UniProtKB/TrEMBL annotation:
InterPro entries: Bem1/Scd2_PX, NADPH_Oxidase/PX-Domain, PX_dom, PX_dom_sf. Residues 126-247 form the PX domain. PROSITE patterns: PX. Pfam families: PX. This is PX domain-containing protein. Residues 89-117 have a biased composition (Polar residues). Residues 76-117 are annotated as: Disordered. GO terms for molecular function: phosphatidylinositol binding; protein-macromolecule adaptor activity. GO terms for cellular component: cytoplasm; mating projection tip. It comes from the Eukaryota.
Amino acid sequence: AQSTPEWFVAKPIARLGGPGLIPVSYVEIRYVRTKEVVPNAVEAVKRAGVPSVEEWKRMAANYKNSSITLGKFAGPDAGGQRAVEQGMESMSLQEGRQSAQNGSQHRAGQHSISQSQQYAHNQEITPVYAPVEAWIPRYCFAEDKYWFVIQAILEDGRYWELSRYYEDFYDFQIALLNQFPSEAGHSGTTKRSLPYMPGPVSYVTDVITEARLHNLDAYVKSLLAQPDYVSKCDLVKKFFAPREGDYEITPNSVEGKTRLSQGSQPSA
């Protein structure tokens, strides 16, 4: 399917997972017989009649409704079909607000609406405080995973060093856009005021993570510059609330507080 002129929606066939976004510029179209590259990919896509997301969802629903039930593989517990539907719902949410500038790819249905809602309504037992200042001085890598170090000052005056994966930021961003649709620019009457964050990619490297470091640093600073009803909402409080592995630091141990973040590009 095609989300916007800049984005395709595709589902992997070599592994499990739901559909995701792929930049059109990343796709090379070739003639089946000659294997030569199609000179005008845009026209080729138009001639092929690639469906929109909504058309894709309707076709998927029609296929499901016309399918013959075979034992216990059918019905509400059919996990593969449910993953596709949730992934397409997530893609619909992002239509119109994805930018091709990042050249990014959404990973297989990883961030569905239900995950965002669960994240937004997750209950915390301990009191949580809103962050008053935050910055990202560095990132770390271990066991094939990158994560970002956030140093934050909370309302109670305590300094914390928080560790967050990129996926934590992405889940938070989707939940934030859902909670504040007007500020996200989805109402059609107001301009978007919520900050952008770098979009997902299929393969993460040191170079990409370094760029994300600068972009996410600018993102958290812009986030905390929002009006109080956004910057101090429960969703923001929970994202910056200390979790297992986070620890309190002294004011003298902070680093990179005055580092300027540059090169931020919009995506999600």
